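Possible race condition, two jobs.
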Amino acid sequence: MSSVPANGMSASGGWLDKERTVAGPGFNRWLVPTCALAIHLCIGMAYGFSVFWLPMSKLLSGTDATLCVNQSLMAELFTTQCNWSVPAVSLTFTLFIVMLGVSAALWGGWLEHAGPRKAGFIAALCWGGGMVVGGVGVATHQLWLLWLGCGILGGVGQGLGYITPVSTLIKWFPDRRGMATGFAIMGYGGGAMIGAPIAVALMGHFKSDAGVPGVATTLMVMGVLYFVVMSIGAFGFRIAPQGWLPDGWTPSANAKAMITNRHVHLDKAWKTPQFWLIWAVLCLNVTAGIGVISMASPMLQEVFGAKLIGVDSVATVTPAQKAAIVAAAAGLVGLISLFNSLGRLFWASVSDHIGRKNTYYTFFVLGIVLYTLMPTLGHHGLAALFVVFVCAILTMYGGGFATVPAYLADMFGTQMVGAIHGRLLTAWSAAGVIGPVLIANIRQTQLDAGLASNLAYDRTLYILAGLLFVGLICNFLVRPVDDRHFMTDAELAAERGKSHEATTASTAAASTAARGSFGIGGVLAWLAVGLPFLTGVWIAIGKAAALF
C-alpha cells in the first residue's frame, strides 16, 4: 500500500491520477465544497448565455448583412454574408443541455475510476476551450463553429463538470448528503448571476468603433477565465480515504427511510425500476420548472401588461412606461436566478431531515397547488402574488436538481453514485427540450385561435400541474432496491480496485485523515467562491427591485 504524506496527497501517480488526490492528516472536508463551487459557478453560466443571443444577431453591419432575410438554417451554418437569426444562435443552449446529459451518461462510469481531479480538469478544457472555439466561430462568422465549440464541446464540459463533485462530496458528507450536494449545485444555479453581468460588461468594453458588440473577444476571455478557475477547483479536490467517517458518526441502516449501506453497480442500477421512477420524477419536475423559466418574462408582460406599473389599459401607456414594464419583467428574471440558486441549498438541506422522498412529495403537492392557482391570480391582476408563486416554483426546480444525487445515494449506495447520477441527467436533457417547446407551442396555438394574450398561459399552467401529478405518482411508487441488485463483497472489492480505492490509503490514514483545522486557507477558499456569488446575489436583487 502507498503511504499518505501530511500534505494530503499520495506519494505515487501523475498529477491528475486519482491516487494523488487522497486526503491525508491535516485536510478539512469543508474545503471540498469550495472546489465544487469553483467548477459549478463557471459552468452555471449556461443559464446566462441568453445575453449573447441578440448581440450575435447583429454582428454584421452594412448592406451585406441584409441580403439573406429568408435564409435557411443550413445556409446560416456556413454563410459569412448574413446576420444569424436569434433562434439559430439560441440552439446553442439546446445543444449544450443535450450534450450535458449525454456526456454525463457516457463518461460517468469513467469518472468514478479517474477521480474528480482528472475529470474536473478535462471539464475545464472542454467548457473553457469550447467558449474559445465558439469565440473563433463568432469572429469568423461561422455558426457551425459556434455550435461545435460552445454547444458540443462546451456541453461535454458541462456534463463532466456537473457530475465531477457529486460522488466526492457524498463520500465526504455521509451525514449531510443533501447539504453537501446542495452547496455544489447551488453554484450551477448562481453561475449566471455572476457570468451574465461580466459578459455584458465585456461586450460593451470590446465593442467596435462601428458599434458592433464584442461577442467574440468576450467569449474567448471568459473561456480562458473559466478554464483557470475550474482548473484551480479541480486540482484542489481531495477524496476521502477508504473507510473514513466523520467523528462521532456511524452509518445506520434504516429501511423505512430507504437509506442503504450497500452498493449497486452502474450496470445494474440503470436497469432497476427505481432508477427509471426517479428519472421520471426529475424529468417531470424539471419540465414544469423549465417551462416557466423559458417564458417567465413574456408571461409576466402578457398576463399583467400595464398593471405591472399601476395602469389599467396598455393603450394609454407612454414609451417610458413600456420600458418600465420590460424592466419589471427583467426583474423577474433576476429573481428567478436568485431563487433557483438558493432553493438548491435550502431544499437539499431540508431533505437531510425529512428524507428525499418526502422532499419530492413536497415539490409535487405544493407545485400542483401553485400552478393551478396562477391563472386565477392573473385573472384578478394579483401580480405581486404571481411573482411570489413563480419564485417558490423556482426554488423547487433548483431543489430537485440538488436533492436527486442524495436520493440516488440513499437508494443505490455511494460507490458509483456519480456514474448513476450521470445516467440520470439524461432526464434533464429530455426536459430541457420538452418544457420550452411545450409551453411555447401551446401559447402560440392559443394565440392563433384568437385567445387574448393574458389568457394564453392558462391551459399551459394546468398541463404543467398535470405533469407534476404524474411525478407525484412516480415518487410514490419508489421502493427500496431488491437485494439481488446489490454487489457482493467480492464485486465491491473488485470495483474499488478499479477505482484505485483499495490501495490508496492505509487503515491508519483513513482514521486520521481530514481531521485538520479549517485555517486561513479555508477562509480564503470560501471567500474566493463566496464573494463572487454574493456579488451575483446583490446584482440579481438590484434587477428585481424594478418589480417593486
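Job #2 (started ~2 s after job #1):
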Amino acid sequence: MKNLLFLFLISICFSYSSCGNKNNGPQYDVVIETDYGNMKVMLYDETPKHKANFLKLAKEGFYNDLLFHRIVNGFMVQGGDPESKNAPLDKRLGSGGPGYTIEAEIGFPHFKGCLAAARNNNPEKRSSGSQFYLVQGKGAMNPNQLPKNNYTQAQKDLYAKIGGTPALDMAYTVFGEVVEGIEVIDKIAAVPVNGERPKEDVKMKVRLK
C-alpha cells in the first residue's frame, strides 16, 4: 500500500482545495446522481476488490432507481439495497444484496465524504456486495477524541478539519471518497425520516464518469 501520509495529503488537495488539475478538475471514477445534486466519487486502487465490484455494478446499472434507505443525520447515509427499488414506505429494507459478499479490505479512516461498504455482523468483516454508505459525521472534531488506532498526523489533521465517524475505523471497508459535491451528503442527511428511513424516497443513479 502507498504511503498513507502521501495519500491523505493528496486527498486533502483533491477534496478541499484547488490544488488538483485546474483544467481537468478532480479525478473521479463514478457519479452518484440524486435529486439533491450529484457527487463525483474517486475509488481507491488500494481496495481493488471493492473498486472492481462497484464499477461493475455501476456499469450494469444495478444502482439505478435504488434508494438511500437509511439516513442518520450527523452520521451517514446508506443505500444500495436492491429490494429498495419501488419499495413501499412500510417495507423493511437493509438486508438485500446481489447474492455475494466481498472480502474485507480495511485500512482507510472514515473521514467526511468517504464511501464505505455496509455489512452484516460477521467475524471476517466481509462487505455487502452492493450496500454502501457515505460518511457525514458531526463536523470538525478534537483529535484527542479519536479511538486508539495508529493514525498518522495527516489523518488526525483531516479529522480535525472536516470530521467523520472514527468509531467505525478498522471495522468497515472504506473504498472511495467524494471529490466534488460533498454538500449533497448534508442535504440528503437533512431529509425527514420515519425511524431511519426517509419519509419520501431519495433515489440514486450511479454511472461511470
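Residues 84 and 92 are 9 Å apart (CA to CA).
Logs attached separately.
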